[in-house]
Specification:
alpha/beta; 13 strands; 17 helices; Rossmann fold; five-stranded parallel β-sheet; two-stranded antiparallel ribbon
């Protein structure tokens, strides 16, 4: 059964300005899709890639892993790392997609699950836009299919009235679909994926037909078990996935590197003025988050209480990006403790009662006594008053 065409075809490589109708380049949108933002790297990899490729893959598994992890190609093209972490994790994820097993990226919030999912889809299929965003209100139609009710009322069930979901479209095109926050989707909607993943088919009983997946189809889902409103996966659905756990950065140096890279990218996309090196403040943010997250100082000598939030790498990136904006627009152009103090307070104190006590205790017992942190202590005390 063919899937009806829509007005805009995802993954075509061209964004459309709805105001003027003219094509938009990656530089003209706030957040270009991965396949557009890194098009030159993907093209260079495709040109240099002489290894076998699975059906309908744009790159070989080796090239996909290189795109995620970074490297230098024979022609001198530098492929920037999209994921900083154990190489084996990426290799297992890519290999999973080369089989008929779906991939589940599991981890606490802020471990780059969505980021990895997007870049995997971009490298494998050249299209990361076939996306279902999971929420508590995600309907079954988002995973299976819906109807154009005007046509349905006028002509009854027909292929013209069918509105395919991103998953259905990926099945018919042999590309990669993405489901974000799978465990936030109601359990009965989750289980709509069981037949799709096990039988590689999606029945449409209203038409007496079905959509069968063509070679190249697969699905990447992300999930975490820390947020409220989590719906556990049924054992039947979990068996259809190969689960890859994305850990938090293993070392402070790795986390500082991740934050610095992402802040630089975000700064360019937001057109923030280029500031002097702020790695010292980035390291300070990472240190605070890791100590509160782990419940112990980096030297292992002092135990501290942990707040209710996750204090993830993604939140550290947000704090530093906000600090850069403050320094650029309201400061002297140098990232200082006063620029990041308010962001840290907002990230740590989620529960106004319990978390504020944890933060105050950490300031007085750890930050106040630490050499070279007096300016940071004063800035945090000022915003915490």
């Amino acid at each position: 059964m063919p899937v009806p065409e829509t007005i805009a075809k995802p993954g075509s490589g061209v964004e459309t300005d709805t105001g003027t109708g003219r094509p938009q380049t990656a530089d003209e949108v706030l957040r270009p899709h991965a396949e557009h933002a890194f098009a030159h790297e993907l093209a260079a990899l495709a040109a240099a890639d002489d290894r076998p490729r699975p059906a309908r893959w744009r790159l070989s598994p080796w090239a996909v892993a290189t795109y995620l992890l970074g490297g230098t190609l024979p022609d001198g093209t530098v492929v920037t790392p999209k994921y900083v972490g154990p190489r084996r994790i990426v290799e297992v994820a890519v290999t999973t997609l080369a089989t008929d097993r779906a991939l589940l990226l599991l981890g606490v919030p802020g471990t780059a699950k969505t980021w990895v999912s997007e870049h995997l889809a971009a490298a494998v299929s050249g299209d990361s836009t076939l996306l279902v965003q999971g929420t508590a209100g995600t309907p079954e139609e988002a995973v299976r299919y819906g109807w154009n009710y005007a046509r349905l009322l006028a002509h009854g069930p027909s292929e013209d009235a069918l509105v395919p979901s991103p998953v259905m479209r990926a099945m018919s095109q042999g590309t990669t679909a993405r489901v974000e926050e799978l465990t936030r989707i109601p359990a009965d909607v989750q289980d709509g994926l069981i037949t799709i993943l096990s039988e590689k088919t999606l029945p449409v009983p209203e038409l007496g037909q079905e959509v069968q997946a063509v070679p190249g189809f697969n699905l990447i889902a992300t999930a975490n078990d820390r947020d409220r409103g989590v719906n556990e996966l049924s054992s039947a659905l979990r068996r259809r996935f190969n689960t890859v756990v994305l850990p938090l950065p293993a070392t402070p140096e790795a986390e500082v590197d991740i934050v610095a890279r992402r802040v630089e990218q975000l700064g360019r996309s937001l057109e923030l003025p280029v500031l002097p090196d702020g790695v010292d403040e980035i390291r300070r943010v990472v240190t605070v988050f890791r100590e509160l997250r782990d419940g112990v100082t980096t030297d292992g000598r002092t135990k501290v209480k942990s707040p209710s939030g996750t204090l993830s790498t993604a939140e550290a990136i947000s704090v530093v990006t906000g600090g850069l904006a403050l320094a650029a627009h309201f400061g002297d152009g140098v990232l200082r403790p006063g620029d990041i103090a308010a962001g840290i307070l907002g990230a740590v104190v989620r529960d106004p009662a319990a978390d504020r006590t944890v933060w105050q205790e950490y300031l007085e017992t750890v930050v106040r006594e630490r050499d070279g942190w007096k300016d940071f202590y004063r800035a945090c005390r000022e915003v915490s008053a």
